[in-house]
Design goal:
D-Maltodextrin-Binding Protein, domain 2; nine-stranded mixed beta sheet; 13 helices; alpha/beta; elongated; 3 domains; single chain
Length: about 325
């Protein structure tokens, strides 16, 4: 029992084969059946069990017509599932790495890419790389850029502005987006078709992104141009899920990228409030680390370029 108290000392004698055999034994229910599945003699199986229980320092099964795991056995089963799962996943990643590929792709995105660009890109990407798991992170653009430069993200879809001009990053502009004023089913504006001056909406219950985000900066600039120097929002959030929940629960209005607005309007969850001006959001594109080459990342970026240029060809053609 002293080895167990020492933390890692007991585990140094533990082998992957011990864990594999434990899971087989638990499923088989008898030593005889487990031995057959593992292509061992029953004597060898009994020897393994004795060795395992000596290592653990306690019985791991209750013997009877059907073997049952003891509390110690349940703990070891939990360890076996965790360790063998990790070993399997790492093995897949090592195999992919040896081929210059990746078994996981970490993608960061802001609202502007979430509605159509990112889902379409992932769908087409999986047609080429069906075994690659795509991990999506939705955060403010500054945070995404920091994580991309640190290698925590493989690709970012977001605003292409001065912040994207980083010495270690490549980027490609895919389309130009705008900022739309929107309302949900909870708003008194829902179902109306009236056209508003932006200045007339200043006293509404606004749900907007936090200061420092591109969309908030563009809204603030538009308000100044409209002669309204200050907006006091009721809610600040960078999460599209929170925006949707608030706008459909109460009498609020908010802002969305035109890309997201089109999608949500089609789903019946938001309504576009027409105003007296166009609020430019700016260029939206894809960014990746130029110092880290990966065939998987390269394929994802190329698919994103194709999707962006196909779905937004009109915005690129009309751009100055």
């Amino acid at each position: 029992m002293r080895d167990l108290a020492d933390g890692f000392a007991w585990a140094r004698r533990l082998k992957v084969r011990h864990l594999e055999s434990l899971l087989v034994l638990e499923k088989a229910g008898t030593l005889t059946e487990a031995a057959a599945r593992l292509h061992l003699t029953q004597s060898a199986m009994s020897h393994w069990l004795a060795e395992m229980e000596s290592l653990v320092g306690a019985p791991i099964v209750v013997r009877g017509r059907q073997l049952e795991l003891t509390p110690a056995g349940q703990l070891m089963k939990r360890l076996a599932i965790s360790v063998l799962g990790d070993v399997s996943r790492i093995g897949q990643e090592l195999h992919a790495a040896a081929q210059g590929k990746a078994s996981r792709l970490h993608v960061g995105s802001v609202w502007a890419g979430m509605a159509s660009l990112l889902p379409s890109t992932i769908t087409l990407f999986h047609a080429v790389h069906p075994s690659v798991a795509v991990m999506v992170t939705e955060e403010p653009f500054n945070t995404l850029l920091e994580r991309l430069t640190r290698g925590e993200l493989d690709v970012v879809m977001g605003t292409i502005d001065a912040r994207a001009q980083h010495i270690t990053l490549n980027h490609e502009v895919l389309f130009d987006d705008e900022v739309c004023v929107v309302a949900g089913r909870g708003s008194r504006h829902w179902g109306t078709q009236s056209h508003h001056l932006l200045s007339e909406l200043i006293d509404e219950n606004w749900v907007v992104p936090p200061h420092g985000t591109s969309m908030r900066s563009q809204l603030d600039s538009a308000l100044v141009d409209a002669g309204v120097p200050w907006l006091q929002p009721k809610v600040e959030t960078a999460a599209i899920t929170t925006l949707l929940a608030m706008l459909n629960r109460g009498d609020y209005i908010g802002i969305c990228s035109a890309e997201m607005t089109r999608y949500q309007v089609a789903q019946g969850t938001l309504q576009h409030i027409e105003i007296d001006r166009i609020i430019k959001f700016g260029a939206v594109g894809v960014l990746w680390n130029r110092d880290i080459y990966s065939e998987t990342v390269n394929d994802f970026v190329n698919i994103a370029k194709t999707v962006g240029r196909t779905e937004h060809a009109h915005t690129l053609e009309s751009a100055p």
